[in-house]
Amino acid sequence: MTRGAIFFDALGTLFQLTPPQVIFSRVLKGAGHDVNEDQAERLLRRANRWWMDPDRPTARSAAEELEERREYVRIVLEDYGCGDVDGVADRLLEDAYWARWARPFTDAAPTLEALRPHRRLAVLTNGGPSSLDAVHYAGLGGYFGAAYAGLELGFQKPDPRTYELAAEAFGVKAEGALLVDDTPENVDGATTCGMRGVLLDRADEHPEWSGMRIRTLQELTGLLDEL
Prior knowledge:
This protein is of the alpha/beta class. 45% of the residues lie in helices and 14% in strands.
């Protein structure tokens, strides 16, 4: 097996989200409906409650995620009271897909560009296939040799089996790999199975962290030189 791989978390590490009220306001305006961001936020409340319901079955495939988004749009349009006028449902389903609106952090591409000639790079994120779509829509997919979503693997970080399965699928030894993640629990999970872990703490929220910590992705190259 090849050693020296780096696994990157996605949301909060490589990219950030555009708020859903911003997305829906812009898409609805593009469809001829004058809905500002405050109105969109109120319009999305019931759909968001449905989305966040802990008892709702979690989608594990792209097809199941599509059905989730379809139901979300149906609830929004029901509360909007316009129905599917002029194909607005299909437009929301396509153009308001959250992954399309992923915004890469400015330090992501330069760091990945610098690392790619020297390391094997992969994504390891919680969630389903849409999280991997977001990496590509953020313009970062080409830097990675593989991408793994927890729901597809069958386990989510920080469960050690998540890292073990990803390392095996990528053809690397866990003890020869490193994870970069913005969540302390996920970094702890990686070290449990023998990986090295680096906490990305952009907002300095975890000053008590005793392990390896960086505040920007660009600091990672220097840290690797030290290691």
